[in-house]
Amino acid sequence: xxxxxxxxxxxxxxxxxxxxxxxxxxxxxxxxxxxxxxxxxxxxxxxxxxxxxxxxxxxxxxxxxxxxxxxxxxxxxxxxxxxxxxxxxxxxxxxxxxxxxxxxxxxxxxxxxxxxxxxxxxxxxxxxxxxxxxxxxxxxxxxxxxxxxxxxxxxxxxxxxxxxxxxxxxxxxxxxxxxxxxxxxxxxxxxxxxxxxxxxxxxxxxxxxxxxxxxxxx
Length: 218
Known about the structure:
D-Maltodextrin-Binding Protein, domain 2, 6-stranded mixed β-sheet, disordered N terminus, about 25% helix
């Protein structure tokens, strides 16, 4: 994982400067930014919103542009609905055509997300292999985060079971309500701590890393 801070901050400042009028009064309103619970990118810690994405936006918008920020963590599907409706000003996500229909994206990515497959070690159906393809996943019940653009684009012919948080996905896998989870390994490794070391296995997935941008409501 890498964080493109200098270029990202520059491009984000240019993007936000186009929308400064609502935030340029004598007592500027806070810019509302929402995130999913995706540790280490964004998460709550003792009531505070923290993470890599939060740190970058605080630096670019809060420190450098002096824009008051209001961060919140919500179910991912709800975050997208709120930005689409204008109830939230911005979020950080992959810039899909659907999202670009109602939001402008920064030119530079804030992070790059890869994907891995997590499954129970005891499942005998999957042959030992160093990496997997989309075709190999078709026989399985796959857990994904509700509102995932990656899942919508790549798993539309697969049997998927959405959940509103990565914690819920971990519980579903533990209870064997799903066969596997396809998720960002940096995000999901935190939630796998609830498993014993011999309860799960992680497989690499053959796909290009996704660039993640800040999207601002049009």
